[in-house]
Design brief:
The complex is a heterodimer of chains A (277) and B (534).
Chain A: H1 10-31, H2 36-63, H3 71-92, H4 99-115, H5 133-159, H6 177-207, H7 215-233, H8 242-260, H9 268-271
Chain B: H1 27-51, H2 59-80, H3 82-88, H4 91-110, H5 117-124, H6 128-133, H7 143-163, H8 171-193, E1 195-202, E2 208-213, E3 222-239, E4 242-251, E5 258-263, E6 271-274, E7 278-286, E8 296-299, E9 306-308, E10 313-315, E11 321-328, E12 331-334, E13 339-342, E14 351-356, E15 363-367, E16 383-385, H9 403-406, E17 409-416, E18 419-426, E19 432-434, E20 438-446, E21 449-460, E22 463-470, E23 475-477, E24 480-488, E25 491-501, H10 505-533
Chain lengths: 277, 534
């Protein structure tokens, strides 16, 4: 990892540090009996999101295009989406119990971005110069963030079943972790559907085909199919509880492979010609 | 005959976690259901895999197999009802089909699709016959995949029949599931009836009246009429500005090559951190012109190369008469002025503009970096051999890019372990090493295609219209849609169009619309209606 790069990017460093600090505060809030620690954690998250949003805006201005082109840029956007989805959930369910893992996700995305640092501002090829570009990316990444949140909740359901929730991290009423993750997957699935549909309509306009069995298309279909199966299995006896949690985690593994694993596929090199121009 | 099944929606709702389980609740009943589902999925795959040993692959057998299989399942479910209908319209079957389809899709990305037989024999050896028999080489047209799609269709139809009629409450369910059926129907129509091909055009060339069907592995190109004539009046290729930048390279992880880590902004005086407690700043950007060579050398199809000066006309050994018009050491295409220009004085992309065959002949650019390039339009073979000149710098009347990007050397101040030194970094020259593993290079970055568009003259019958075709901006000509597909970086007159006639598209898009609206309706509107009504 080329840490020397960070010297010229103090805002990036500060944002990553704020997410990392939020993670520490959320962990401390697990053990704390007073709400103070939890509030500090939320404040750190909000501060980190401010920095994160500023990173995106400055990049947008510098590149003179939406900063969703490279893996590096989308990682920075994913960090913001994860944090934003989490904060909404924190208010919705009135709990900070999931904050540690969520901010760990945002911080992790930024640390991964350091490894994938862009050497230069790349330009937008003609195929990406489309009105569909922003909705396609935004919808998918908020979807990914919602599915990440569901994974966090599922992980807590599996590994912390007797979790004692202190004053710092109140869980409202008798809300089951499983229902929280289900609601989040449902939301993510709506966005995955929108992203897939928008992607296919865009592909038709750009290349003349709404579907060409390209590996990236295939894998985004696979994520959709896996979560569709999850939503159907909720109605099947024996597929709630831990099994559902494992399936949610497996589904997110597929999401991550779709996002990051394409270059491992033998078919990836063949895919490039599809996206020529 | 079993009694009509109760609608799954009639089951009681248990609060936020709305659950209506499949009605088979006993352990034995559930096992029987699992067996039926396993049989259906396994049967679909097995029947397809066996049938495809005799039936050649293709879109028609695929669609026919899916429909036949779906019809058989639906008919037998409705005839026997009971456990069979319940199982084949169940959530469990739906999940099993969805997961099977996802596994098939994954498999389709692990095995390269549509390669010649020899490829699989080389890649998989003894397993190749099995891969070919299972049609893993063209998985999405295999009949076992068709069987799974058939099972998906029957599952969609049967589950919809169980919930019929459409109500406000289940409208989301119907929108999604009918939407998926319409998408599959549209995909079937596309697979069977869609026609797709290429139109190759040249600016100022003859109009095209047919579409070239590109089928892999078929040597003879098949042409079908377009029903109109399309002529390329002008082709525009704009590139992003190319700029010289100080670039930092480091060895890659496995050390087999150097990787670009940073391309620094050309900001004078700003300090940049380097690995290993070193740093640098650009002190000055210098114009460090390399003299344009006094003479150039051209080689025809046969014979020895011939020396030529700009402005001179020579006759090559193969009889070709060539006049050298102008020389650009670092050829680039200026986006604003739409003129060929030089980005620097360094011979990075030496280009010579020539006129062939007298004053009325064709003009074209020859690139020394692309030797032996034969004009795709059928022009004579001509190679430009570049050798750097040694004459003193002279302004040869070459059009120039802005001064900043023309500077072909950067004077750096590098501080390493507290010691400062100056280094001159020249374009196309040796890099400067900082520490053990860091290299600084001054090189052109950017210049990728920004946009390309065809100005077309379209004649349909007696009607004539002009239209601009660009990426993401297709054009309708009769029942064809034309797409700007590609360009040839070596031939600025060439434009490649994709022509598609696909009657499935309206169906697929209608299905998309239903899916797009149905999913949020089912998840967010339906629970509210349910709460209100309860």
């Amino acid at each position: 990892v080329d840490l020397f790069l960070l010297a010229e990017h103090p805002l990036f460093t500060a944002t990553a540090a704020a997410y990392a600090a939020a993670f520490v505060f959320y962990v401390l809030a697990w053990k704390s009996a007073r709400p103070f620690m939890g509030r500090i954690a939320t404040a750190s998250t909000v501060a980190a999101m401010g920095g994160n949003a500023a990173l995106i805006v400055t990049r947008w201005l510098a590149a003179d295009r939406p900063p969703f082109k490279s893996l590096f840029e989308t990682m920075i956007f994913l960090a913001l989406c994860i944090a934003l989805v989490y904060l909404v959930m924190e208010r919705l369910y009135a709990t900070r119990a999931f904050g540690a893992l969520a901010t760990l996700g945002s911080a992790g995305a930024l640390f991964f971005a350091i490894a994938k640092w862009d050497a230069e501002l790349v330009t937008l090829p003609p195929a990406l110069q489309s009105g569909w570009f922003i909705p396609h990316v935004v919808v998918y990444f908020f979807g990914y963030a919602a599915l990440f949140f569901a994974t966090v909740v599922s992980a807590m359901q599996l590994f912390k079943p007797n979790f004692r929730l202190r004053a710092g991290t109140v869980l409202r009423g008798e809300m089951l972790l499983e229902d929280v993750s289900y609601h989040s997957i449902r939301f993510g699935f709506v966005l995955l559907t929108a992203g897939l549909v928008v992607g296919a309509v865009w592909a038709k306009g750009a290349w003349g085909d709404y579907w060409v069995w390209d590996p990236k298309e295939n894998w985004s279909l696979v994520t959709w199919l896996v979560y569709a199966a999850f939503l159907h299995l909720r109605h099947v006896k024996g597929w709630r509880g831990n099994r559902a949690a494992w399936l949610a985690i497996a589904g997110f593994a597929v999401v991550m492979f779709t996002y990051l694993g394409m270059e491992m596929l033998p078919t990836a090199a063949e895919s490039a010609h599809v996206y020529q121009g | 005959m079993q009694p009509e099944l109760p609608s799954p929606d009639a089951a009681p709702d248990t609060g936020a976690a709305a659950q209506f389980l499949d009605s088979s609740s006993g352990v034995g009943a559930r096992r029987r259901q699992a067996e039926i589902i396993a049989l259906a999925v396994g049967g679909a795959v097995a029947v397809g895999a066996v049938a495809q040993q005799w039936i050649p692959p293709g879109p028609v057998p695929l669609v026919a197999a899916s429909l036949l299989f779906a019809t058989a399942i639906i008919a037998s479910s409705l005839a026997f009802r009971g456990k069979l209908l319940e199982s084949l319209s169940s959530y469990r079957l739906a999940a099993a089909v969805l997961l099977s389809l996802s596994l098939a899709s994954v498999l389709g990305t692990l095995v390269l699709q549509g390669k010649p037989v020899s490829f699989y024999q080389g890649q998989y050896g003894a397993a190749a016959p099995l891969i070919l028999a299972l049609r893993l080489d063209d998985l999405f047209h295999s009949l076992w995949f068709g069987g799974l799609v058939g099972l998906m269709i029957s599952s969609l139809v049967l589950s919809a029949l169980r919930r019929w009629p459409i109500t406000r409450r289940n409208a989301g369910f119907f929108a999604v599931h009918i939407g998926l059926l319409i998408i599959l129907a549209g995909a079937g129509i596309s697979a069977v009836f869609a026609v797709k091909g290429r139109i190759h055009l040249r600016a100022g060339g003859a109009p095209a009246q047919s579409v070239v069907l590109a089928r892999d592995g078929e040597p003879n190109e098949l042409r079908i009429p377009l029903g109109a004539s399309v002529q390329l009046e002008k082709f525009d290729l704009d590139r992003y500005r190319e700029q010289l930048r100080v670039c930092l390279y480091r060895p890659s992880k496995n050390g087999d090559r150097y990787e670009l880590k940073v391309a620094f902004e050309n900001e004078i005086g700003a300090w940049h951190r380097l690995p290993g407690h070193a740093s640098f700043r650009i002190k000055e950007l210098l114009s460090d012109p390399v003299a344009p060579p006094a003479t150039h050398r051209l080689k025809g199809a046969t014979g020895e190369p011939v020396t030529i000066r700009v402005g001179e006309t020579v006759t090559l050994p193969d009889g070709l008469q060539v006049k050298a018009l102008r020389f650009l050491p670092h050829f680039t295409f200026d986006v604003e002025t739409k003129q060929a220009t030089t980005a620097s004085d360094s011979p990075i992309n030496p280009a010579l503009e020539v006129e062939i065959g007298g004053p009325a002949g064709m003009r074209r650019w020859l690139f020394a970096n692309v030797p032996g390039f034969s004009h795709a339009g059928g022009g004579p073979e001509l190679t430009y051999l570049f050798a750097p000149g040694n004459a003193p710098p002279a302004d040869a009347g070459v059009p120039r890019a802005p001064a900043e990007s023309r500077s072909s050397a950067a004077l750096l101040v590098i501080v390493e372990q507290g010691v400062a030194r100056e280094e001159l970094l020249r374009v196309g020259q040796q890099p400067v090493a900082v520490g053990e593993e860091t290299l600084l290079v001054y090189e052109p970055r950017g210049g990728d295609p920004k946009s390309f568009r065809s100005q077309l003259l379209v004649r349909t019958g007696t009607e004539e219209k002009r239209a601009v075709l660009a990426v993401n901006d297709p054009l309708s000509v009769g029942d064809w849609s034309l797409y700007q597909a590609n360009f040839d970086p070596q031939d600025p007159t060439y434009s490649g169009l994709e022509a598609v006639r696909d009657p499935g598209v309206p169906w697929v898009f209608a299905g998309f619309g239903l899916l797009f609206l149905g999913v949020p309706y089912a998840f967010y509107v339906r629970p509210r209606l349910r709460r209100k009504e309860d």
